Amino acid sequence: MTTVLKLGGSLITDKERAETLDGTALSAAADAIAECRDDLALVHGAGSFGHHYAEKHGVSVTEGTTDAGDALEIHGSMTTLNRFVLSRLHDRDVSALPVHPLSAGGRDADAALDMPIPAVRTMLGEGFVPVSHGDVIAHEDHGATIISGDEVVVRFAEGLDADRIGLCSTVDGVYDEHGDVIDHIEDFDAVADALGGSDATDVTGGMAGKVRTLLDLDAPAYVFGADDLSAFLSGGEPGTRIG
Ligand code: IP8
Fold this sequence. Notes:
Blueprint lengths: L1 E6 L1 H4 L10 H12 L4 E6 L5 H7 L11 H23 L5 E3 L2 H4 L1 E2 L5 E2 L3 H8 L3 E5 L1 E5 L3 E5 L1 H11 L4 E6 L14 E2 L20 H10 L5 E5 L3 H5 L6 E3 L1
Parallel strand pairs: 1-2, 1-9, 2-6, 3-6, 4-7, 9-11, 10-12
Antiparallel strand pairs: 4-5, 7-8, 11-12
Helix pairs in contact: 3-4
Bound molecules: Isopentenyl phosphate.
The site of Isopentenyl phosphate (IP8) has 16 residues, from helix 3, helix 4 and helix 7.
């Protein structure tokens, strides 16, 4: 069983304060991950790390920078967060290794992502837990743009033939217009009106974009809150099933 799990940036950081970790939430997630017996590929978002610098430098998924210093500041913020995640996992004897998208791929002029993942597959085969993240990435004719953790999740899910995908964040699922968690989403148009944007600084699009992206996958994806992470990792179907 191959599982791709994203820890949302809003979960593991304090999204309102620049470069501030939510250590309690990260430790709790690491505890749950340490109990997982699946082949697990992890991705984490940016939260108050990468998004803060992306906004500062005007860089987004479509707006690039040709300033290497700006790109490095965004990337460096993400690798700092990645180190925190790796460290909490190593504290629990999880064999976690980093995968940095900036060094692993690029986009063509039409924004199509080319990110080969044989190295990630080999890591999994050798019993490691790859831990990737949203990042900056070289983008033909744009300099460097943002790649969201969700896009990495999609690439991992396709390239690793994942059986299931989990998006663990600060929400219990995808909410409808009445504030209730939607059990199952099979069609974007059916829920488009109910999906709003993200309140705090988030250059990669909020929940609507996430749902759209996840619907493209073959494997089912689940959006759920931190309290349901153990349940998801032991085969449960918490929150909202997408696809
Ligand atoms: O938090 C964004 O990743 P996300 C990555 O998964 C950066 O959308 C560097 C802002």
